[in-house]
Amino acid sequence: MDPFSDSGELYAIRQQFFAGQYSAVAELSLDEFSEPYYAAAKQYITRSQIALGDFKTALATLQTEDDLTSETLSAYIQYLQGNTAGGAKLEQLIAAHQDTEIVQIIGAIYLVKANADVDGAITLLSTSTESPSMESILLLLQLRILNHQLPLAAKELQQIKKLAQDSIIIQLAEALVNLSLGGEAELQQAYYFFEEISSQWLSFSNLLSLLAVNLQMNRLPESEETIKQLQLLLDTVEGAPRADFIANQITYALLTEAEDARVEELRAELALVDPQHPYLVDYAAKNLLFDDIVAKYEQAQV
Amino acid sequence: MKMLTKFESKSSRAKGVAFHATRPWLLVSLHSSTIQLWDYRMGTLIDRFEDHEGPVRSVAFHPSQPIFASGGDDYTIKVWSLQTRKCMFTLSGHLDYVRTVFFHHELPWIISASDDQTIRIWNWQNRQEIACLTGHNHYVMCAQFHPSDDLIVSASLDQTVRVWDISGLRKKHSAPTSSARSFEDQLARQNAQQQDIFGNTDAIVKYVLEGHDRGVNWATFHPKLPLIVSGGDDRLIKLWRMSETKAWEVDTCRGHTNNVPCVLFHPTQDLIISVGEDKTIRTWDLNKRTPVKQFKRDNDRFWLTTAHPSMNLFASCHDSGVMVFKLDRERPAHAVSQNKMFFINGEKQVQYYDYDKASTSLPMLTLKKIGKSWSSIRTLSYNPAERSILVTMGEADASTYALILLPKDVTGAIEPTDVRQGEGNSATFIARNRFVAFTKSTQTLDVKDLTNNTTKSIKLDGVKDIVSAGPGTILLLKATSVVHYDVQQRKELAEILANNVKYVTWSNDGNYVALLSKHTITIASKSLELISSMHETIRVKSAAWDDTGVLLYSTLNHIKYTLLNGDNGIIKTLENTLYITRVQGKQVFCLNRAGNVENLTIDPTEYRFKKALVNKNFSEVLRIIKNSNLVGQSIIAYLEKKGYPEIALQFVQDPETRFELAIECGNLDVALAEAKTLNSKSSWEKLAKEALVQGNYATVELGLQRLKQFEKLSFLYLATGESAKLAKMEAIAEHLGDYSSLVQNTFYRNSVEKRVQVLMASGLHPLAYATAKANGLDELVEQIVEQTGIDEASIVLPELGAPITLPESRGVVGNWPLRESSLSFFEQALLGQVEDLNLNETEVETRQITNDFESEAIFDDEDLAGEDAWDLGDEDLDIEVEEEVVVEESLSAAAELNLWLRNSHSAAGHVAAGSFETAAQLLNRQVGVVNFEPLRKRFLEVYQANKLYVPGTPGLPSSQVFIRADFTETENKNVHPYIPGYENVEARLHEGFKQFRSNKLEEAIAIFRDIIYTITVSAVPSTEEEDKCKEILTVCREYILGLSIELARRALDPADIKRNLELAAYFTKAQLQPAHRVNALQVAMTQAFKNKNFASASYFAGEFLKVVSTGPRAEQAQKIKTKADQSPYDALDIEFNPFAEFEICPATFTPIFKDAPFVSEALTGAKYQPSEKGKIDFITGITAIGASASGLRVIA
């Protein structure tokens, strides 16, 4: 029996992991899982701990064993902690084990994070000789979107949808691609996915995506409701993508023609939370661009 | 098919039964000689009729008159009045048991069948037997009229069914009796009228139907078709067909295992229903003559069955009473999803209803071939993500579900293409790609995917039904409870005790759930905590929540509401049962039993009012009181019960009730007014008592005066220190000769002399003497002694002290409020004392705005015409200029932004796409924008307002997603970004007007400029909106111009009177709305008048009066005008001619006369003196005056 099927042992943990319920996953006890699924469960649990920033617990769990997964994840934690040795180790692993799922995934994240090397990450994920895992595909599609290769992402998605339409990973990938694609049917699909998943496996990130769809579909009252829910959730969830939330709130404020002060307040809050957030980077760039324009036409006039 | 029992009576053997046509009444005749009248809806026995001797075999209601007939073994037919509940008369003539009686549908006739082998027809109006039909040669078991034709069908133990023609009888009884018949008429009669062998023309046997092998017990016509069905002791049911000339046997239905005493056609469906002494009710397919379903009772043989004339109801009598039942539920299966409701219509077709458009779609699919024939569809669940439906049909073990994909386009009732079926009693979607099917007998819940494969199977216990409850969860309906169950985790989330819940309705926000069982409504929170529970005597049929959290529900015959706290009431009475599917404001969308949508308009005032009251939302309560005529005892009783007599007071006219309510809430003014009207002893008493409690002495006094309670009144005066009035009381008492009262008063007033006099007068000499002596009134003492003739020395008095001085009153005490009689919120509000009551303000405000809007429309039209003329002066510019803007597709940008850039013709689209350079280029060419700084905020706003960030896998940067103008757009070439601002422009305009009204001119200008910037960087879908944008730009221009002039005037050196007057005059030239222009005119008028420019003052006053003709301001203007007209010349000559055509240059504030040269500005079309060319436009602050321009384009 497929351990990931509805009644399988790993069903709930995987659902929770990909729904972004990292706290819930991190709290699970490894003892609950039987031998054949132990490794997979352990991977989800430690990765959730990493996502929550709880490196200590993650390392403690990882140190009990000595396999490739533990090695990769340990190296990744090292890197996240600012230890250059971690990065070096990861590069080494990427070179040696590029066909292994965990190396592909963590490696790709590392490449993007450390070197902004999206192309390298894409290569790593797509050159596997074996059939790629679903998570690799999820990652790959996200990278395609980041790399502005949306049509390619859509095409790849269609192919793998045939393989495993029912899996939460593919559905998540599909929803993410659809969000970027836009269009009624696409947004509806994404909406239903995020709506369903947030009512079943509520997490900050999927609720935030739901907010995005609602705004894309111009459903302002629902968006307001979602923002309220997110606000409530904010304090209870660790490691929430808070910056994105603030950025989206700015958009909401602009759409609802809120007071300028509100927008400024949010912008200041965002600068505090994540000064490197793409929103702020973009905003600053556009402001500079505007300076140029002002100057250009002033000059022309004189 | 399912038999649903609605009512059962317990009695001895029942032989006859009949439905009333309109009321929920049922007549039952018993073998024991009694006739019962039941209300089968309430389940109560209304009356009993006992005049027959021996068994009563048949009863019949008249279709429209309040009478009924009965026939029994005492050989008689009795006709009864439903009004007096008594037997009116008895029809005698039959010589043996009367088997059946029926009324004719229109003529005043009764037909009876008897064991004396005859059928008789009676006229119940003149109580005569008008025909006796002989022919059967055994007992006649049944005889009935045809529902429309002049025919009779009879069944007899002589094994035949006979059809009789009674047209002769009708003619005889409807034709004029005495007048001579015309020749043709006679001829026709002779030819048409056949005679039977006895020369009898009233009724002749038309057909004799032979086929039954034993006696025939029952025969009846089909309501529409030329068919007859009969049942006999040969256990067979036979179907016969007839034509004009002959009749023949069609088929036989075999199945009953004992005599068939009664059989009939279903009134609307192709079914035959029969009852048997084999204790069964059976239904048969009329077209195939095959059995459809049978229902068996354990011990009771059936004797008769009848159908309700208009409803889906049947009644059958058996050995121990009667049962009323219906065949199949009549609730159309339906499911609501967002703004649509999908339902199964009467033809077993799928349709949907769009609530927003209030229209029903064409049928989408026919489900006739889904499931077994005669199995109706019970439930429907809709999956919006996949556009598929899940229906369940059939009953008990034969129940199935079907998963059906809806067609993409609605073209009519087509056969479904993609159907997946399975067994289960209930099925519902629980997720986009999952549904559950529940089988009651095995208590299994199967979770299935969309290919109908089971992914999980769960064992439940004691569950009767399941309903959906949000993603991943269902409600398990058990006999005594409802459980919220998480299917994925197999976990019970919550449970609530509620008996036999059948239907469930969630509130729109998902926070509440209403659980409906037959007679109970339980309202619970989403975590199934009990909120309230109520009992309803009539069956509850359906419910839906309105937007504000009020539950509306329907019973068999009402639409009612209930608030969360259980307060409820009736909204509307229904003629036919309806199933509520949604409530939107005043609209209630229902499905009727025929599967059609009915849209009712209700008056929600009552429940909104109660809800506001319960929630203590008093301003809403007030609004409702003011705006609606809410009346009725129920509201008053409700208000009193809830402790709001002062509100109830607002609804009442009746003085008695008003008085009582006023007393209750201590409103003395109202109480007094009403007491005056009522002028009854008890009301004055109550009023005086309440007034005393409140310390309102004036009212107490009035009350006591009216009551003539002088002693109390005196005491009141004593207490309040009104000695003058006390004196009056004394006089009154004296006048009335009421000595005891008089003495009492003298005590109050301390008037000793008077008291002595009274005592003397009443012969109490010793007391009088003692009083006088004690108070040292020697003169009086002497008088008394004199009068009585007693030697003073003989009187022995105790030692007297000095005369007592009684305390003096310290003056009059006025009212002395003892109770805080502050007015309640409502009273204050109703008296208009609440100044800052938001409600009133907003009302005024909205009215203001609408006014503004109306006048604005007129004003805009004029202005547009002006602008057209203006544009022609411009040189023809290269309109294709946009094409020159090179759109570079950046590979590094998202595809979406590239699309936007490629598709956009407006600057806003370029801004949104992040291409500020091209946007700036466009604006520069279109309207000559050169100063971009003021547009910075708008640029960044437009750029950001359509971008969002979606988090992905942790560690990866978030991806950007985009908001389109129309998310339903699928064509790439039509994709545009969403640009905010336009929707709000009008509201902003009114904001500007508001600032204007409150004299905040700088702020107003800032707002109007901001509007200009918003429009400059906007994208709208069509020319209609673009025209509107341009209109608004013009409005902004005029206001900015006018206000700038006024600001300049205010900033002037006060010595510069000439310029002051000029600017004041120019201000009036700005094209403001009339209501606003008044301000300009007033300024100009007063300034001119003050500075003795009377001609101008008169002109402005005249203009002013054209707009404002009444009120203090108008009066002032009128005065100025009158005064100015006395010496109509200007002291100072200014550059202003009211009758010349000119515009004002916004930079120099000087007039540009009609034919003078000018340069213009492209964005708002302002005209400048030629000297201003090349400068920055004063109005907008962004464009260059006189720059070449192609005109603003805001269409996306």
Largest sheet of chain A: none
> What structural class do you assign from the helix and strand content of chain A?
mainly alpha
- Detail the poorly predicted runs of chain A: none
Radius of gyration of chain A: 21 Å
> Largest sheet of chain B, if any?
5 strands, antiparallel
Number of DSSP E strands of chain B: 62
* Helix residue percentage of chain B: 25-40%
Please report the first level of CATH classification, the CATH class of the domain at 3-170 and 203-327 in chain B: Mainly Beta
GO molecular function, one term (chain A): structural molecule activity
GO cellular component, one term (chain A): COPI vesicle coat
Family (chain A): Belongs to the COPE family.
GO biological process, one term (chain A): endoplasmic reticulum to Golgi vesicle-mediated transport
Structural features, described:
Chain A: This is Coatomer subunit epsilon. Chain A: It is found in: Cytoplasmic vesicle, COPI-coated vesicle membrane; Golgi apparatus membrane. Chain A: Belongs to the COPE family. The complex is a heterodimer of chains A (302) and B (1196). Chain A is mostly helical and 302 residues long. Chain A has a domain at 145-181. Chain A is 75% helix and 0% strand. Chain A has 17 helices and no strands. In chain A, helix 6 (84-96) packs across helix 7 (101-115), helix 8 packs antiparallel against helix 9 (134-146) and helix 12 (184-200) packs antiparallel against helix 13. Chain A starts with 10 loop residues before the first helix and ends with a helix. Chain B is of the alpha+beta class and 1196 residues long. Among the domains of chain B are: 3-170 and 203-327, YVTN repeat-like/Quinoprotein amine dehydrogenase (Methylamine Dehydrogenase, Chain H, 7 Propeller), CATH 2.130.10; 329-423. Chain B is built from 30 helices and 62 strands. In chain B, strands 29, 30, 31, 32 and 33 form a five-stranded antiparallel beta sheet that branches. In chain B, a hairpin with a 4-residue loop joins strand 20 (236-242) and strand 21. In chain B, helix 11 (710-720) runs antiparallel to helix 12 (723-736) and helix 11 (710-720) packs parallel to helix 13 (739-749). Chain B starts with a strand and ends in a 28-residue tail after the last strand. Mean pLDDT of chain B is 83; it is low at 833-891. The chains are: A mainly alpha (302), B alpha+beta (1196). Chains A and B meet through helix 7, helix 9, helix 11, helix 12 and helix 13 of A and helix 22, helix 23, strand 57 and strand 58 of B.
